[in-house]
Amino acid sequence: MINKPLTSIFILAGIVILSFYIINNSILYQDNDFGSEFSITLRHYGWNAREMERSVAIPLEDALSVIPGIKNIRTISENSRTRAFVSFKNKGQGNYDELREAVQRVYEMLPSSAQRPEIHSMGYNNIPFWTAAVYGSNEGNYLDRIVKPALRRIDGIADIEIAGPGVMEIMVILDQEKTAALGLDPIYISHILSSNDGIFNGGVLRNGSMDIPVFIDSRYGVLDFQELANALIPLIDGGWIILSQIADIHFQEREPETYTRLNGNRTSIISLTAVSEADLGKLSAEIERVLGNLSYLDLEFHILEDRGKEEFRSFLAIIRAAIESSVLLAIAVILMGIGKNSCFSRGIICAATIPVIMIISAALLTLMGFHLNKRFLAGLSIGIGCAVDAVILCSNAFSGKKVISFWSPLVSGAVTSVAALLPLMGLNNDEDVTVIALAIGTVTIVSVLLALSLLPPVFFWNMTNRKLNSFSFNFGFKKFFNHVLIRLLGFCQKYSYVIPLLALFITVAAIISLKNSEAHISGNYSLDSVYVQVELEGGYLKEEGDRLMSVWAEEIGRHESILSVQTGARIGSAYGFVTFNNEKYTMEEIRIFIRTVEIPGGFIFIPEPSINDRIWTITIYGDDAEICRDLAIEAAMLSSLVSEVRDTVLNFKDGAPLLTLYPDRSLAANSGMLFSRSMEIIKYGVHGPVAYKRLSGNGEIDLRIGFAPMLSGNDVLVIPLSGNLLTASVFNSERGHEFSGIHRENRRRIASYSVRTAQGDPRYYRELIMSALEPLVLPAGYRIEFDRDAIAEAEEISGKIFNFIWAFLFCYMVIAAIEESFILPLIILSSVLPSLAVPVLILTLSGTAINSAAACALVAVCGMAVNASIISAGNLWQRDSWHLKKIKPLSFFIALKKDIPVLLAISCTSILGSIPFLFLSESNNSLIKNLAFISVFGISISFISSLTLIPSLIYLYATFISSELSGHNQV
After folding, report:
1. Can you say whether residue 37 is alpha, beta or left, with left for phi > 0 and alpha for psi between -120 and 50 degrees?
2. Do strands 731-739 and 741-745 pair parallel, antiparallel, or not at all (unpaired)?
3. 3-state SS track over 231-268
4. What span, in angstroms and rounded, lies between the C-alpha atoms of 326 and 915?
5. CB–CB of 672/723 below 8 Å?
6. Integer Cα distance of 716 and 738 in angstroms
7. Residue 448's closest CA among 398, 368, 363, 384?
8. How far apart are the C-alpha atoms of 666 and 673, rounded to whole Å?
9. End-to-end CA distance of the chain
10. CA-based diameter of the chain, in Å?
11. What DSSP character marks residue 90?
12. Mean pLDDT by 10 residues, the chain (971 residues)
């Protein structure tokens, strides 16, 4: 096939066309599959936190714990709501199916007034990625019934929270005096209404060969609830009374759980969180499309935060860097004459192979299930800089009058590059690293296969067609470069110990600095917004919290860079979301300013990490919630005494004032009242719970029955239980404070608090905090744990040193097998240590943390850094001639001279392929920037090492072998 260049060209063209077809039929960004973490929300209005725990959380934990593959279960029980967070060991559709069945079983055991469960796949960061303020008439109804279901259908949306408006409901307010005089109680009225307001199955009629189902539609007016107002209520002593004669019936908007404002004005807020696998850029585009389809609604969306657009801008920056990288590589291989017969035509051929390799590699990755995203592109672009080395070696083989062998350096360089990436494939929860490693490995393999198959005929045709070689480049600095290289190699021979000792010193210094910098963990954060958590005194009404947050928002809004301030207030807590112009002030300056604006009776806490700080969570595990909270309070006080701790905040608080009723059993026995019935009547009087759900043309709507929309503590005591029997007649009262939320994890109660410190190794802060907590005495069966996830991530980062060792061993075995030598692979790989040590020293000395991204980048560059050393050592390794004559100073230069252009070409192309990625500014491109930084400096030092360290080590070894052989001959 070497004599059929057109055949090779047309085969390449066909492969490129097929690759284009595969990529074109793929999906932009990344598919969103069912993740390994889910959130479950169950609501029952009127139940407090203890009742939600007893009736919902514990049965839910029991149902979920039997599902195979469950890793962790955490529940939070609050007033009217229980939330569960479930994580599986692996991903898959089966997780969701079994989870849904278990949740449905628990829901079916709850009263009919319970709200339907909500199950969502969730991400690791539950802070919303998309938030908007909504204005318009009847926005609450539109958001709940139209907008929310439409957004729910978007793949990748984990949860949707709507704050501000309340849902529409039918409220039946009973007249206490009339119902007491008639002997009617809310339980009885609820039963009469629910049993007459619905669709019931009437059986099946058989008509010949057909079955005709019969349904009885006894609903009161579906579109007009006037029929409900005219409902007949049977009296105890006979006769009927119309419902409207003893009750006021009306539509109303349920009091919202949260009052929200934007820049001080009351509004509705919709917030979306994403699953951990979702591409935020794609989600933002889908949200924009869905809202565009809903433009007929009288709603105006004012977008406050859209991290998907930030992700999309980051994606565009990667595309721009990828194009710049390809252009730089193309220009470099055209301008660089390769070999003594350098020519423009071979440069054009090399440049043309760059897009071919990228397109074929992209198609292969697409067939493997990966889709076009920024990690995908970055891996291809950075990898092509090293992969084009194979093309350069192939071109160099056909640069003279006869073909020279290039198999050994080609395969050695490619296999070591790929082998070094293998340890990165098995990293847990690090999909970014896996995608980049696969992209680099794929583009390397494709380039080698092309260099061994389809490219040789093209270069051979170019070699024999001399008229194409009419234009060549001759660089003027060639003589100067040769002169400098001769002096440098002479120095390496004369002072052969200096360079190895210098390399050893740099490596040891890097190891020491790496150890001192420890395992840093980086968190996700936004560069133009700040999320603020505000803890108020327990039992603070929403109205009071809303007033305080309105004043706070006004103060924050006076800062010149603030664009908008969104606030929300719940019972006992609040939050703020501040967006700002990051061109005028940095995120850290805005955070400091926010902390200076105080809220009376409130504590401000920023839960998101930043470039300068990190949040750690300390958790107490036990069986009694009260004891866990007391221990957490004491532990938080001890932790605040640690000088490195900047802030301490409890992740719980006292709830609202609590009124507890205790029955007088003797009085209750004399009255003939059952406690269960008294409890239900009091519940209807205090809260007016959902009696049942009415089916209407627009779906379900709650019908609530109660005595009044709001009762004070004294009003509770005069609720009629039966006839003239009041609550105060059979119950004694006691006041206290309720739990605002009961947290459980893996079926044990927990209480936690958070501390804010500088960025650093969580194991270091664990030692500090746990030492400060030594005076804390834990009861039997109770334990305290420092941020489990952070510790696990730090251990994984430290464990990446073993990945580096594995990569090093892989490379050694490959080179040893190809070169059939034990010593030569060690000499070649010696260049890896200083090549990685220099970028490590630069990062640590500049104050940049060696985090997970940097650790993975070091492993990935390990294989790329040996390519130049393989060529250099292969030319200098002349073991058979070392015993024949003394090594002359110029012998190394003569051995290297013919491959100097190749060394320069493969190093420059590898560096140029990474340079555009150094200028990425987005914070979520840290892995790509670190990989590019380490690639540029690592490969640069590798090139220098191939001309200094490798000759020095080979000269030392040659001298040793020569002296050994001479001594043996003398004997």
Report:
1. beta
2. unpaired
3. CEEECCCCCEEEHHHHEEEEEEECCCCCEEEECCEECE
4. 11
5. no
6. 17
7. 384
8. 11
9. 56
10. 131
11. S
12. 64 73 54 62 81 90 87 84 84 71 89 81 65 79 82 82 78 84 84 83 80 82 73 86 89 77 81 75 86 86 81 74 73 59 64 80 79 71 73 71 64 72 59 74 83 76 50 53 80 85 89 66 65 75 83 88 85 82 82 86 76 84 88 92 87 71 73 71 75 72 75 64 70 70 84 86 89 91 89 73 71 79 85 86 74 66 76 71 54 74 77 80 65 83 87 82 57 44
In the 8-state DSSP scheme, what is residue 477? Answer: T
* CB neighbour class for 849 (10 Å; exposed up to 12, middle 13-18, buried from 19): buried
618 closest CA partner among 791, 790, 786:
786
- Tracing tokens 């909500």 back to the chain, one arrives at 118
Distance between CA atoms of residues 850 and 856, nearest Å = 10
Backbone dihedral angles phi then psi of residue 96, each to the nearest 5 degrees: -65, -40
How many CB atoms neighbour CB 795 within 10 A? 12
User: Which amino acid, residue 647?
Assistant: D
Q: Are 669 and 585 in contact (CB under 8 A)?
A: no
Q: Are 346 and 333 in contact (CB under 8 A)?
A: no
pTM more than 0.85: no
* DSSP-derived pairing of the beta strands 168-174 and 699-706: parallel
**Are 574 and 536 contacting, i.e. CB atoms less than 8 angstroms apart?**
yes
Q: Name the token pair of 109.
A: 């055991």
- Rounded to 5 degrees, what are φ and ψ at 157? -80, 125
In angstroms, the CA 14 to CA 802 distance is 43
- Residue 133: phi and psi, rounded to 5, are -90, 140
E-state strands within 452-561? 529-536
